Amino acid sequence: MNGVFSMGTTIVIGSDHAGFRMKEFIIKKLEEAGYTVEDKGTHNETSVDAGVYAVAVGEAVAADPQQKRGILICGTGIGMSMMANKVKGIRASLVTDLFSAKMTRAHNDANVLCMGARIIAPYMAWEFTQTWLNTKHLGGKYAKRVQAMMDYEKQH
């Protein structure tokens, strides 16, 4: 594994029916790269509610934030990101380009990456995933901003 996450990091992944094929592709690429992957489903292309999988991934990451990061895939990535962000401790970010994939880690320390299978091609999703996994949070003023988000969440 060449990412900035420690060797013990587990990537928790989930999708709805629209993201199923891309999820399977990303799992294969992650495993080839040496990551441990925990698949929260769905396990086929039968229509399902995306929120169930967003919560499952979010709760797994929130329960072990030092060792787990999440990836969510649906048709657009929008529903997954919105639902995952309802889980306390989650900073899920939808990405549609490489710059966003990098900045969501560097500036916002996102712990869940969200992508849309109907928006981007599988190999581009893999590029986004690698960029996200290999980008360090910059800390400093950005750590203060992330802490402000988390403090707000605790207070409300």
TrEMBL record:
InterPro entries: RpiB (IPR004785), RpiB_LacA_LacB (IPR003500), RpiB_LacA_LacB_sf (IPR036569), SPI_LacAB/RpiB (IPR051812)
Gene Ontology molecular-function annotations: intramolecular oxidoreductase activity, interconverting aldoses and ketoses
Signal peptide: none
Active site: C74 (proton acceptor), H107 (proton donor)
Source organism, top-level taxon: Bacteria
GO biological process per UniProt: carbohydrate metabolic process
Protein keywords: Isomerase
Family designation: Belongs to the LacAB/RpiB family.
NCBIfam families linked to this entry: PRK05571.1, rpiB, rpiB_lacA_lacB
Protein name as annotated: Ribose 5-phosphate isomerase B
Originating species: Pectinatus cerevisiiphilus
